[in-house]
Amino acid sequence: MSSSSRLLDTRGRGAVAPEFLVSPNMLDLVSPSGDRGGMMLGQGVKGEPLAVSVLRPTPTRMVVVGGLYLARQIALRAMATGAWIIIATGRPQAWQPVVRAAGQGPDGRPSQLVQLRRLSPADLPRPTEDMPLLVIHDGGHVPQELFPPRAPWQTTMYVLPYLHPQASSTANNADLVLLQRLPMGQAQLAGQMWRLRPQMFQQLTQLKDDQVIAMGQDMWAHLRLYTTPAEQQILGAVRRGD
């Protein structure tokens, strides 16, 4: 893992993200953000709220291993903070619920706050503190570095359907990794990649559909996803895969 600062906080402690402004209608449509811009992701083992600082004043790399549900939920919540969302994917239809959730601009066209792109290099909008950028790279199990996070307020999130040995560089350079349930072989590979203790990679095989392990520098947190009724209307019921 990289040596970047810890990204997960409990009840507002630890990493803190700045505030962003977004319309009340958008906040009604998607999940509310956490304190000071932290993205509320779920609850800890004792029911305490857990938030992730995804949009930060330093270039940030995230990896999500599992189904599309979690990745799309993160996109909705980043949208709620007022971020640009660029989705580079080979399966654009799977991301249409997020595009539709962004609504329309004044001209009646889909909002430009969420853009679908092909899996090829392209220019990105310049992120700022007032308009941070989340780039979602949905490019299979061995992603290319098409949109590496190079600027402050840019986060690149790599969506991996499963772990592959050739993805070890992407995984090990991540500031934050979110892991859903893995089969034993995948869990053992995770143990090798991140030097996990046996009880840790065993835990990865026993997660329920709505459970996630958040892993970062000196951090291992077991959490249960929190999904609002509005998000369920957009994404459906919580599930492990798509």
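[next item in queue]
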Amino acid sequence: MLCTCRVGVELREVTAADVLAFFEHQRDPEAVRMAAFTSADPSDRAAFLVRWARILADDSAVARTVVFDGEVVGHVARFTRFGEPEVTYWIDREHWGKGLATAGLELFLRSEPRRPLYARAAVDNLGSLRVLEKCGFVAVGEDVGFAEGRGEDVEEFILRLDR
């Protein structure tokens, strides 16, 4: 895969301090609305920390911190959902539009051997859909589910990366 990664973007193991930064990132109401499929209460720090402790303790999951110019700007992870390996990512809204999600996901995919990989995004989350497309994912289906971040059912695309 050709990497068009931005200079200054790197991935590293997730630390406890990173998880606290992730918590702050996911409290942004506009980001929560765009992501749609989030926790029921983005301000519930205890629930967030428990969820991340579970992720980090899961030997079948892989999570990495996205760092840009020395600053924690988000994360990318692979976990199992509906019996299939799925990737997810979150970039702090302050850094949207800089190519950091694409760069972080490209770097992650270089070290993630599992294929196929799946991803999901709300049909109106054009930025995330573009990131996935740039990284080689293609739409293979649609689904509708209740999105806590919007308080309603939301259509989403299911995407797959085969190569």
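[queue empty]
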